[in-house]
């Protein structure tokens, strides 16, 4: 009877130890994944900042004016060329 109880306790102890080892292994894998995802998030934040800066640069009014003049041949009309249309 005492031997059976001792065997059960030893098995429970071994099973518990295996469970602890498995839980620590899972924790390490998840921590590595978390670190990788945080690094990826930081890289995406940097890229997003660059894209916002690029968008702001392309959307500046003087840049739009420059492109309109050089590529499209547009210009501001002279005063005598302006016609006001009223309803």
Automatic annotation (TrEMBL):
InterPro entries: Cell_div_FtsL. It is found in: Cell inner membrane; Cell membrane. One of its GO terms (biological process) is FtsZ-dependent cytokinesis. Its main location: membrane. The keyword Kinase does not apply. Pfam families: FtsL. GO terms for cellular component: cell division site; plasma membrane. It is a single-pass type II membrane protein. Residues 27-54 form a coiled coil. Keywords: Cell cycle, Cell division, Cell inner membrane, Cell membrane, Coiled coil, Membrane, Transmembrane, Transmembrane helix. Essential cell division protein. May link together the upstream cell division proteins, which are predominantly cytoplasmic, with the downstream cell division proteins, which are predominantly periplasmic. Belongs to the FtsL family. NCBIfam families: ftsL_broad. Part of a complex composed of FtsB, FtsL and FtsQ. This is Cell division protein FtsL.
